[in-house]
Fold each of these.
Amino acid sequence: MRGEVVLLTRNVRVIGDDTMSWGGHVVTSDTMDDLGNLVTGQLFFSNVELYNCSQENTYQTAIRFEGA
């Protein structure tokens, strides 16, 4: 799933839903397209707060980079 937000005049607050003690996460990864080309994942955050999106004392963070 991909999302894009541009030209905001306020800060963005992402609030995770507390389902089974897991709020949510943002994953950025590299992948291959249909032609076999490497597509590089990019993440640009500015003035964004992630609330209730990770688990304390674990390796499950709110922002992850996999294969990047």
Amino acid sequence: MPLILVTNDDGFFSPGIAALADALRPLGDVIVVAPQTEASAVGHALTLRRPLRLEQERPNVYSVDGTPTDCVNIAIDKLLKQRPDIVVSGINKGLNIGDDVTYSGTVAGALEGALLGYQALAISLDAKSAGEVDFGPAAQMAASLAAALLERPLPGRTFLNVNVPRGEIKGVRVTVQAKRNHITKVAQRTDPRHRPYFWIEEAQDDWESDPRSDHQAIVDKFVSVTPIQPDLTDHSALDLVDALMRNARVAPSR
């Protein structure tokens, strides 16, 4: 039976991770290793300045007082008796699309799996409502894609970022990351001792129009499936930077 490592950034207690684990169990043995507390928007952070603790919460469910990246590393290096066949991160309560994937702890969990050499996917659900969230469709989508990856693996260091719309789902699209404006909005307030403190808030999102993008897929009620890899090099700019360095009389070595 395949071994499936499940993590997230919402915490081991999240209903999203429970739904995901349940949907994946028909595919193999599922082990959940997730943050002890919510770790949203921590990105690909790795804890290096304090010790980490691993606790068993219930059978096959463990918590780590750290980030999703910490969870994946501790699970693979210290907990699991064999290497996982796939790492699945989610289900996040909220989208992780476009440029925002760089902030996402959910995406980072899958990224760490891919960097360590495993098949991986991250899955998120558009869940802005304050009411009860139905994770069922996203969980089934994750299980279907995980089964496909186990059968036909992606190239090394490539993983899937999957986003599921609310309500009606018209189909599935293979997408690229959307681009949006980045406007910083920071609220400043004063505490009872008259000292200022700050909240970083969501700013207006103006997305660039692109029919291929993950954002447009969600708008059109399609599941977005984006292949991602960790190489941030802008290959199209290499010649431009080469010329720039020569103009600056800092000739690159050949």
Amino acid sequence: MTISEESRHRLYLRLEEVLGPDEATVLMEHLPPVGWADVATKRDIEGLAVATKRDIEGLAVATRHDIEGLAVATRHDIDLLGTRMDARLERELRLMTWRVALAMLTLISVAVAAGRF
């Protein structure tokens, strides 16, 4: 049975006839504004607390797992970047060495050709 505002008002009027207006008001204020099936019990709230705690713990585990995965991926990316930078530095140094050697050979050739050696 659903309780409507009309049925609540009829109950209040009848209680007012029997008990008087003050007592009828006090009694009506102790009734839930909805049906008793819609009122949460202490057991309902405790069940929600347990479920919420379990959900939060699950999220904490998943978050730790995600952070550990990000840390591994970040370390891998940093190592890969270091390897690439080392290889590029080595290529650039080798190229610079060749350029300096070629410049020196060119200068020596020009000096020899000019008769300075």
Amino acid sequence: MEIRRIDWPTTMEWIVDLAQRLQGKKIWGIPRGGQVVATIMAYHGCELASRLGVAEVIIDDIVCTGTTCKAWKMNNSPSLKFATLVTRSTSKVKPDYSVVTFYTSDYIMFPWEDIEKVEKLVAQDRYTEVKDT
């Protein structure tokens, strides 16, 4: 498996695209990648929810298998929308909003991730459990 590094300009383009589609919505970011995305989206017209219970849309960076998306919606509110920058074509659960679909099994590495940690995960074939938890 290869590591596909996404650069900041591309990531920002995707974040702004998602923010424009969710203008005025109260968003809440899933810890780690989702928090980064949601925080940047707040500078582009979205409102950060003070807590999950008032959010309209849950934000994450990627949906790999769909496990996280399904769990967060089921454990909070089925009416909550889910949005991501990237969705894998093989995901069993699709988000309500997504910017890009990847048709590869490569590890998608965002700029906020540590390359050394990613390389270890990929070598151990543990990338999906980190990306979807």
